[in-house]
Every structure is written in C-alpha cells, then in structure tokens.
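QUALITY CONTROL LOG
STEP: pairwise intake check
CHECKER ROLE: data steward
CRITERIA: each record must contain a sequence immediately followed by its structure tokens, with no blank fields

ENTRY 1 OF 2
RESULT FIELD BELOW
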Amino acid sequence: MHPPQVIKSNALIEASYRLTPAEQRIMLACIAQVRRDQPITDEVLYSVSAADIAKMTSSHSKTTYDELAKAALRLKRREVWLTERANGSGSHEETLVTGWVQSIRYRKHEGRVELRFTKDMLPYLTQLTEQFTRYALEDVAKMTSSHAIRLYELLVQWRGAGRREVEITWLREAFQLGDKYPAIKDFKRWVIVPAVEQINEHSPLQVKWDQRKTGRRVTHLVFSFAEKTPKRPHRRPDATPLGKGGKSQKSTVTALYGIKMALIQKSARPGETYEDTALRLLDEAKQSKALEK
C-alpha cells in the first residue's frame, strides 16, 4: 500500500506560522486524508486518533490522548500568514491571515479528535496546479522538532534541485521566532543544527549546510541535500513489479484517481510521477469546467 502523502501548496509551505510537533502531526495526518479526486467543502470532518499518533511516532504513551486533545485545542487558536502575489504574478504581494481549523470535536470515549479546515485554508490543500509540494507522512512522523518538520518541507519543495539557499531573516519570520535566538550562533545551535540532525536521522534526505555572508555579516544559509539509498523502498502504484529472475511483469494498475493509465502515461511531463500527472489532469479538468460555467 502506498504510504499516506502530504500535499500542500508552495504558498503554505513558505507561510509564516508556528506549530508544536504535536500540532504538526494532527495537521499533517488530516492533510494526508484530503481527497483530490472529488470536490471538498469546509464541512468535511477529518479524524485523528491517539492510536494513529502512537503508530505514527512508534509511541506507547498512555497519555497520548490527553496530549492529542491539548494539541488540538491549541491548534484551534493558531494563525497562519500566507503571502502570495495577485493572480500568481505581479509586483504587489497580498497577505492572508487565517486559522487552520474552524471547529474541533472531542470523542473521548473513542480516543480521537475530529476537525474541519477553515474555508480559507482549503484552496491551499485542494486547488493545486503545478505549485505544490508532496512528501510521505512517515518522512516526518518521528521528528520531535517543529523546526525540523518545517525545514524538511522547505527542502523537499526543491527536491529536484538538491540545493536551497534561504535568507536567515525570511526563515526566522517563516518560523515565527520573534525575539528568540537573536544571535546567529544561538539560531544555528538551537534551530538549524537540531533540525538538520533530525532530518538526517528520520527522513529520506541526507542534508549538509553552510552559511553565506553579505559583507561581513552572515545573511543566508545554504542547504545541499540528496536522497538516501532506501533500505526498503515503497513500490509506487505506477511501478512495474519484477517476476522470477528479475524479469519485468506488466503492471496491473489500470487507473489512478479514476484516470486511465494510458492517458496518464501519454500526458506525463519530464520528472512527474504518474500520481503527479493524474492529480494535474484532475485539476486541469476542474479548471476547464469552471471556465465553461
């Protein structure tokens, strides 16, 4: 079975917000449940149980539900600042300040919480074209640093390049650090070093980093990264299984998200997986129908 995938718009990946690791896990577990092959409204409920979180983190804590409930309550109060340019281009930036969720329901007897995303948040999770980032939920499930999860997302956004340079001032704003760690040595010690260590330990990426100066002042961080050699790679739905002696067998997958594989294979762009292609075709079909109305 293909592992749960987290898919976010790049605007949300680069947004300014602060969540604890527990709050991040709730959000990511729900985002991984969002269907992109059918219309989604802000009335849809997404459910996360203490057992889900325990399995995700390989934890056996008896207080998992209490931690889940407290994190969900805090999540209701969290804000996210999203900055985009009008119509995706132009020189004028627009900033949207919104919440992640509009309501949360506790089901204590079931050890779970249910939530609804805000209406403003849905476009950044569902109406995705080419500007989105995808990764497996398990890539970050065991990270205990919220900065590690955020940094990992910023790196996989540039997965194809294997390198990303970020301005320290911008990164501090994205992480909403405020007045914390004003000295660059403290910022590196308490934010960057632990984040990179956790990414290297728990994710599919191996990361190295350096700094760049503007004049005599350190202003940018430069991250270089590459995929680790997987010990047990997950076979994609579009992968071709091997028979005896390593001979290829014909894939039994005939469609993804209701789209025939023949069309997906014909429409795939360089560097796209078949799943990426299927999601793009769905979005293009939705846009075409919207223009016809």
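ENTRY 2 OF 2
RESULT FIELD BELOW
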Amino acid sequence: MSDDTSAALPDDLSDVFPLVDDIADDDLRAGVHEAYALALAETAWDDIREVPWLPDEQQRLGLPDETNVDHVNEVTTLAAGMADALLAARPDLGIDRDLVVAGALLHDVSKLYEFAPGESSGTDYYDLLGHPHVGVYVCEAAGLPVELSHIVLSHTSRTTVDPATIEAEIVKRADEVAAAAIRSRALDDLREA
C-alpha cells in the first residue's frame, strides 16, 4: 500500500475528473476527493490514471487501453446530461444534480481495490465482494451521505439492490450506456456482449 498519494491524485481533482467542479456543494466535492485519496492510500496504485476499466472483459474484447478514469468520465458526462435534460423537462422532480455527479464520479471507486497494478486478474475484493460493496465502504469512510452510498450500491447487477431514487437510476443507466459504448468498439452486435 502506498502512503503517498500525491503523485496518484492531484490536489485539483478536476485534472483527472473535470466534472468534479460541477458539484456546487463544497462538502460533497471535498468528500469525492477524500474518497479517492482514501482508495489510493489503501491500495497499491501509484497513478489513478492507470487503473483499468475491467481487465477480464478488456482481454476478452481485445481492448487493453480502456481505463477506469475514462469510463468514470464518460459515465459522469452522460449522467450530468441526463440530469440536465430531466431538470429542464421536469423541474418538479427535484433532482439533486450534485448527487448525480458525485455518484457518477464514485460509482466505480472500488476498482482501485478490485484490481492491482500489473495483474490481469481481479483481487479477492473483485472475486469475493465486488465493487458496489467496496464502494459503499469507501463512501462511508469518507463521510459521504447515505444517498451516495445507495447510488454506488445500486448501479450494478452485482447486488440485488435496485435504484430507489431518480439520481441512482440516472447513474445506473449512464453506466450501462458507457459500458455498451466500450463494448461496441469490439462488437458489431451488442447482443454478443
């Protein structure tokens, strides 16, 4: 485990995740930074930009260049766009855009635990626990609100927890579309995924 996260996570998180600056709530923005700092401090990664998206799937599809940072940025852009469109069409929904952006930024924070530098297979966290559960741990340890932990927990089929809020549903759908976009690089028919 690395004790020095200075090289792995810049002081300005927007250098890695540009939409973090869209989070208006200072405490929530700082919590996102704290969550990534914690994940880096507790894992062997020296550079957050090197964390892969999903090594076994990347190998199967022949897509070694996909990274978690790229995926998270795509999910965040999609989620923010959906939130903006829904806020314009249905302002009465009361969507918490900050929560959508923070949830998208953190939905896969646990991949730092699930994969190790230089390894092509997942760690025990990947095999035995899975990223939604580890992600909840990171959110809770960073002092983030339970609504954010819910987004992380419900964004994937690796749990039986379905989205209970519109913010969680937005992040789940954005993640699905972003993953499909990655797979479409290698597949002509996404039904083959």
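INTAKE CHECK: passed for both entries
DESCRIPTIVE NOTE, ENTRY 2: The CA atoms of residues 170 and 188 lie 26 Å apart.
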